[in-house]
Request: fold
Amino acid sequence: MELKISQRLVGTTVVVALSGEIDLASAEQLRSGLVAGESDADTSMVIDLRGVGFIDSTGIGELVGCRRRCLDAGVALAFVVPDGTMRKILHVTGMDAVFDMHHDELAAVTSVTIDG
Amino acid sequence: MADRPGAVTIEVPAQAEYVAVLRAAAAVIASRLDFTLDDIDDLRILIDEAASVLLTSGAEGALHCVIEAAGETIRFQIRADVPSGGTLPEEGFAWSILRALAHEVTSETDAEGQVIAVTRRRGPVLDSVL
Reply:
């Protein structure tokens, strides 16, 4: 299942929604999509992972890279993460302690706009 | 391992696009053993990570994968020729995931290349499943 990336604006926050499978084969496409979102983001960005059926270490690496670039650029970043395998993978890589994770878009958008 | 009855051997080109084929094969085999959906998810991730480690280390030619199911246990190994040689660096997110979701994982270098072998039994590995 190929990766689909869509981007829209919710208030002043860029929301990048991912769906499909994230692995070594789609990592480059993912990075392009995230970089595009970052360059459009003024102060805040949300990555919605609810449509993602599969993610591996390559994908986690890309999300970490995005977070680093956002930190450098002063863009607040949050994630919408469904229960199940996605949270398990973030847990075993230790990234659940690093990422600002929420169950729904409203909570994620609120989180990145309220501080900024 | 390859000669045992019940073992499935799959060879795919050593390219990222083919890792999905290995994931699908692992899922089908696990589902026939009455693995739960969580177990099957784990197995798909394990085989993906093992293949990805070999590919990012510079594997060339083919990924040679043998999946063997016995009772409540699935073992698989992926072998590839990694011309740059050396021992695989057992670090990073891929190895964190391999160690967390497998009951056993080993990597070896021999004359024919590099091999990652993984054992996964039915039932959760993690004590606290989120």
Notes: The domain at 4-114 of chain A is CATH 3.30.750.24 (Transcription Regulator spoIIAA). Chain A touches chain B at residues 21, 23-25, 27, 54, 56-58, 60-61, 83-85, 87-89, 91-94 (CB under 8 Å). Chain A has four helices and five strands.
